[in-house]
């Protein structure tokens, strides 16, 4: 008969054994000791145990220097830690946290041995991020007291802890470790048992797609990483993050995810296997997607794939005046960017009234910049004077660069490009700001497709630093060079990519958002827990559902459909829940309701 766990409240989890004293086990040990728990650190290697204790001593000494701990608090925390190579020492523990290598065989051996060592009410937690908690629990003599407790690296700094239940886990065990996590100053989220749980389940699919994008030579490693940092506000690009995590670790997690989901998006990109088997596992080996100064060093050094700084490309065309077509937020933002950089700008809309309204919007934006001290009133006035509103595209007759920012509708854009072809002078560069439509389809609407290129700005254009520069197979070299030079003058970071759905950012961002929706749809985790997991565990500025509601569910669905249509991958099919919300008119903040409800203004 199973032993009930009703006698294991959080307050009784005073002594905790940590099995496996690598980087994660050491971090967890420090967190527990600083929070007043007695910690038994266990590792098969005496050297690893000694190194772990030394690492905690060093880390807590730094905390004292920074004023985060007193000398007495440090001394008390260190006094609460004892290390050993004997697993039998776990007999004194109320909770055991296993953080051994990601291997079923190793973890099963530990759990079977613990069955004969610990008290009947002791909770056994695995720190796995890739293996089945249910499978480990089923092999235990008392599966009801086995669960997952997934900390994030570095454990002392990262707030997120995923509390993972199997179908066998007793609710009292979940409650006890959840309360402990809160007492440790962490933010626990409750998740079910599937590979990757929430944070890694969403993160590793995205990382895998980035690796596949790089492997296909669609964009350089530097451009992929810069695009996701600047376009999404992420702390690191995906390829740099893979190097930090360890390419071999990422491959292990993805293999486990694919075994469970059979989703091609989780099938490890072949380059991950190639790099792993070559020993090029990232920072820890000194080389992965990038090359590092030394094994373990964060300093990237030049290698054969590093772009040459100041490399000479084809000379561009002279650009003195710019035409911006459109009257919406994106068009006015782009016009403001060009005018601030000293270009004469013609802002053309379908009517003089719309053009004047767009210029007035720019005036308000510039006034806000003045109020915030970002520019002088004189500079704002000069910027606004450079913008000429017009009610006809005939006003583009003398511009050197025409940028369209009209509705995301291919037929509308093609009609506009046919008009630009007629009114713009020979040699003018014609650019589209589309985020999801084929640039070449706009180019083919003209008699000069070699003059057409994509310039995908991000909203709000004055604030966002990224521009995706999209070459078609027909774009002339000097047109590409012109746009790169212009991006430098308007102080934007240009990344190069080819003409395929989603370019870099949307092609990586929206499958991640779609997978988050599927998690909610399958009742795997709540909106709030998923948003918290990605902000706390992944460093994302917004959770996926916050972002979806800001972007607009209709816009998100349209991009998902374009990606699915282009790549024909079943895993990219829009989640039915997204389609249902759009059909119901729940489009996000702009309608007052999306995944969440918002107060009407």
Protein model, in words:
This protein is of the alpha/beta class and about 600 residues long. The protein has helices spanning about 25-35, 45-65, 70-80, 105-115, 135-140, 170-185, 200-215, 220-230, 240-245, 245-260, 270-275, 330-340, 350-370, 375-385, 410-425, 440-445, 475-490, 505-520, 525-540, 545-550, 555-565, 575-585; strands spanning about 15-20, 40, 80-85, 95-100, 125, 145-150, 160-165, 185-190, 290, 300, 320-325, 345-350, 385-390, 400-405, 430, 450-455, 465-470, 495-500. The strands form 3 sheets. An 8-stranded mixed beta sheet has the order 3-2-1-4-5-6-7-8, sandwiched between helices. It has an 8-stranded mixed beta sheet with strand order 13-12-11-14-15-16-17-18, sandwiched between helices. Helix 15 (about 410-425) links the parallel strand 14 and strand 15 (about 430). Helix 7 (about 200-215) crosses helix 19 and helix 13 (about 350-370) runs antiparallel to helix 14. The model is unreliable at about 1-10 (pLDDT under 50). Belongs to the 3-hydroxyacyl-CoA dehydrogenase family. This is 3-hydroxyacyl-CoA dehydrogenase family protein. Keywords: Oxidoreductase.
Task: Give a short overview.
With 601 residues, the protein is α/β, with parallel strands linked by helices. It has helices at 23-34, 46-65, 71-79, 104-115, 133-138, 171-183, 199-215, 221-232, 238-245, 247-261, 270-277, 329-340, 352-371, 377-385, 410-423, 439-443, 477-489, 505-521, 527-538, 544-551, 553-567, 576-583, and strands at 15-19, 38-42, 81-84, 95-98, 123-126, 146-151, 160-165, 187-192, 291-292, 300-301, 321-325, 344-348, 387-390, 401-404, 429-432, 452-457, 466-471, 493-498.
């Amino acid at each position: 008969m199973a032993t009930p766990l009703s006698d294991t409240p959080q307050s009784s989890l005073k002594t905790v054994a940590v099995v496996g004293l690598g980087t994660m086990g050491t971090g967890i040990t420090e967190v527990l000791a600083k929070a007043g728990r007695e910690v038994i650190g266990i590792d098969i290697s005496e050297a690893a145990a000694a190194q772990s204790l030394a690492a905690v001593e060093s880390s807590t000494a730094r905390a004292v220097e920074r004023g985060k701990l007193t000398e007495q608090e440090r001394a008390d925390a260190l006094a609460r830690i004892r290390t050993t190579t004997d697993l039998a020492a776990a007999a004194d523990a109320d909770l055991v946290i296993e953080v051994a290598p990601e291997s079923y065989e190793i973890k099963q051996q530990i759990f079977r041995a613990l069955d004969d060592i610990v008290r009947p009410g002791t909770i056994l937690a695995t720190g796995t991020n890739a293996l089945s908690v249910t499978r480990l629990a089923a092999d235990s003599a008392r599966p009801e007291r086995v669960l997952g407790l997934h900390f994030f690296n570095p454990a002392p700094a990262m707030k997120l802890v995923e509390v993972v239940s199997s179908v066998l886990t007793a609710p009292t065990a979940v409650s006890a470790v959840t309360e402990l996590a809160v007492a440790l100053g962490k933010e626990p989220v409750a998740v079910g048992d599937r590979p990757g749980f929430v944070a890694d389940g969403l993160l590793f699919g995205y990382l895998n797609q980035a690796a596949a994008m790089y492997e296909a030579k669609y964009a350089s490693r530097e451009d992929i990483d810069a695009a996701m940092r600047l376009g999404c506000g992420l702390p690191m690009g995906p390829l740099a993050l893979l190097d930090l995590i360890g390419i071999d670790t990422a491959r292990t997690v993805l293999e486990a995810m694919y075994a469970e989901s059979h989703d091609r998006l989780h099938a490890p990109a072949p380059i991950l296997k190639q790099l792993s088997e070559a020993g090029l596992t990232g920072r820890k080996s000194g080389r992965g997607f990038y090359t590092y100064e030394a094994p373990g060093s964060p300093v990237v050094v030049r290698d054969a794939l590093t772009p040459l700084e100041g490399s000479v490309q084809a000379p561009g065309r002279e650009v003195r005046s710019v035409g911006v077509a459109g009257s919406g937020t994106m068009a006015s933002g782009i016009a403001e960017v060009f005018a601030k950089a000293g270009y004469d700008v013609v802002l053309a809309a379908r009517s003089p009234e719309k053009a004047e309204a767009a210029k007035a919007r720019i005036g308000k934006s510039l006034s806000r910049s003045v109020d915030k001290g970002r520019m002088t009133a004189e500079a704002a006035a000069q910027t606004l004077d450079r913008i000429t509103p017009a009610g006809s595209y005939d006003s583009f007759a003398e511009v050197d660069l025409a940028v369209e920012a009209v509705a995301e509708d291919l037929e509308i854009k093609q009609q506009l490009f046919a008009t630009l072809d007629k009114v713009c002078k020979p040699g003018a560069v014609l650019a589209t700001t589309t985020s999801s439509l084929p640039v070449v389809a706009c180019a083919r609407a003209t008699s000069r497709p070699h003059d057409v290129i994509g310039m995908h700005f991000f909203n709000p254009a004055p604030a966002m630093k990224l521009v995706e520069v999209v070459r078609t197979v027909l774009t002339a070299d000097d047109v590409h060079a012109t746009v790169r030079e212009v991006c430098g003058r308007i102080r934007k970071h240009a990344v190069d990519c080819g003409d395929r759905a989603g370019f870099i950012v949307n092609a990586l961002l929206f499958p991640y958002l779609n997978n988050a929706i599927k998690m909610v749809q399958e009742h795997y985790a709540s909106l709030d827990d998923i948003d918290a997991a990605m902000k706390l565990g992944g460093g994302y500025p917004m959770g996926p559902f916050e972002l979806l509601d800001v972007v607009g569910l209709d816009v998100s669905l349209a991009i998902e459909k374009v990606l699915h249509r282009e790549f024909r991958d079943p895993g990219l099919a829009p989640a039915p829940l997204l389609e249902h919300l759009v059909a119901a008119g729940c489009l996000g903040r702009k309608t007052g309701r999306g995944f969440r409800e918002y107060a009407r203004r």
